[in-house]
Design a protein that fits this description.
One of its GO terms (biological process) is protein N-linked glycosylation. This is Glycosyltransferase family 34 protein. InterPro entries: Glyco_trans_34 (IPR008630), Nucleotide-diphossugar_trans (IPR029044). With 311 residues, this protein is α/β, with parallel strands linked by helices. 38% of the residues lie in helices and 12% in strands. The chain has one domain: Spore Coat Polysaccharide Biosynthesis Protein SpsA, Chain A (Alpha-Beta Complex). It has a 6-stranded mixed sheet with strand order 2-1-3-6-5-7. Strands 4-9-8 form a 3-stranded mixed sheet. The longest helix has 31 residues.
Length: 311
C-alpha cells in the first residue's frame, strides 16, 4: 500500500506582483492637504471668535451683577429682614441683576464669628452664578437708597473707576507703610471697597468674577486666619492679607466711602456720612452698644420705598 506524498513546492515560485507606490503617495498628500485646510479654518474661526466675543460665551439672560447679603435673623424682627430683602430685590429687578440671601448658618465657620460668613457666601454666589461679572456684597444692616445708580456705571466702568480710585493711600490709616498702587488702570481692578476711620470697611465691596477672585476668597478664608485671634476677625484678616500679599494688593481699588458705603453716623472716613442721592446707607455698628438697627433704618425704609415707587 502506497501513501500519497505531499506535492513538492516549486523551487522557483513566481515573483510577487510589484506594488505601485503612486496611489499611496497621492493619498498621503491628500490627507496632508485636508489637515492643513482644517487647521487653517480652525485658526480663522478662533481669531474671529476672539475679535467678536472673546473666548467665553455668556448665556443669554445672565445677570451682570449679583447682590449678596448674608442674613442673620437672630435678634431681628421678621419685618426688618423682609424689608432688607425687598430692598435688594427691587433694586435688582430694576437693573436686571440677581440677589442671593444665604444665612450665617449655611456655612461651617468652625466657631469663628458670624461676620466670616460673608467670605464663603461670595464664593457660593460665584458657583451659583458662574457667568455673572460682578458680586456685590452688602451687609444686612444697610439699604440701597438710589435706584438710578448701577454697579457698572457708577463704580465699575474702567474710566469712572480710574477717576475714583484713591492712590498711594495707607491701607490702615493714618500711617500704614503699605499703600494702594498708584499706577493701576480701571480694567486691572478686581476688588473694590472703601475705608472708614479705622481701616478697610468690608460691609460693602465688589468682586469681579475670575480665577483671581477664587484665589483671593480662598486666601481670606484660610483656616489659619480664622483661628488666629484677630481683634476684628475677618476685617483684620483682610487688612493683613492685603498688606502682605502683593498679588491681592495689585487688584485692589480703594474708592471714597460715600460711593457705595456711606454711614448713617460717625465712624466714617472723612466725608463718609450719608447724604441724599448716595447709593447706600449703612447703619454700621447698630447691633452693638444699645443701638436699635430697625429704629435707625425706619425713616430710610420709607425713603427708599418712595424712591423706588414701592407701595
Amino acid at each position: 500500500m502506497h501513501l500519497a506524498m505531499p506535492a513538492r513546492k516549486s523551487s522557483n515560485p513566481p515573483p510577487y506582483a510589484t506594488r505601485s507606490t503612486r496611489f499611496p503617495m497621492l493619498r498621503r498628500s491628500r490627507v496632508q492637504a485636508i489637515v492643513l485646510c482644517a487647521c487653517a479654518v480652525g485658526a480663522v474661526i478662533f481669531i474671529l471668535s476672539q475679535i467678536v466675543g472673546g473666548s467665553e460665551r455668556i448665556p443669554s439672560g445672565t445677570p451682570p451683577v449679583v447682590v449678596v447679603t448674608v442674613l442673620d435673623p437672630d435678634g431681628y424682627s421678621k419685618d426688618y429682614i423682609n424689608n432688607i430683602k425687598e430692598n435688594r430685590m427691587e433694586y435688582a429687578k430694576k437693573h436686571g441683576y440677581a440677589t442671593f440671601f444665604p444665612t450665617v448658618t449655611d456655612y461651617d465657620l468652625n466657631g469663628s464669628p458670624n461676620s466670616w460668613a460673608r467670605v464663603p457666601a461670595i464664593r457660593h454666589a460665584l458657583t451659583k452664578f458662574p457667568h455673572s461679572t460682578y458680586m456685590w456684597y452688602l451687609d444686612q444692616n444697610s439699604l440701597i437708597m438710589n435706584p438710578e445708580l448701577t454697579v457698572e456705571g457708577h463704580i465699575m466702568n474702567p474710566k469712572r473707576l480710574e477717576g475714583l480710585m484713591i492712590r498711594d493711600q495707607s491701607i490702615v490709616p493714618p500711617d500704614s507703610v503699605i499703600k494702594t498702587f498708584g499706577h493701576l488702570k480701571g480694567n486691572q481692578v478686581d476688588f473694590v471697597l472703601t475705608q472708614d476711620k479705622d481701616g478697610l470697611a468690608q460691609g460693602s465691596f465688589i468682586i469681579r468674577r475670575g480665577e483671581w477672585s477664587k484665589f483671593f476668597l480662598d486666601t481670606w478664608f484660610d483656616p489659619l486666619y480664622r483661628s488666629y485671634s484677630f481683634q476684628k476677625a475677618d476685617t483684620h484678616a483682610l487688612e493683613h492679607i492685603v498688606q502682605w500679599h502683593p498679588t491681592i494688593l495689585s487688584k485692589l481699588g480703594l474708592i471714597p466711602q460715600r460711593i457705595m458705603n456711606a454711614y448713617s453716623k460717625e465712624d466714617a472716613a472723612g466725608d463718609g456720612i450719608y447724604k441724599d442721592g448716595d447709593l447706600v446707607i449703612r447703619f454700621a455698628g447698630c447691633d452693638k452698644g444699645g443701638r436699635d438697627c430697625a429704629a435707625e433704618a425706619e425713616p430710610f425704609s420709607k425713603q427708599w420705598k418712595t424712591a423706588f415707587r414701592v407701595q
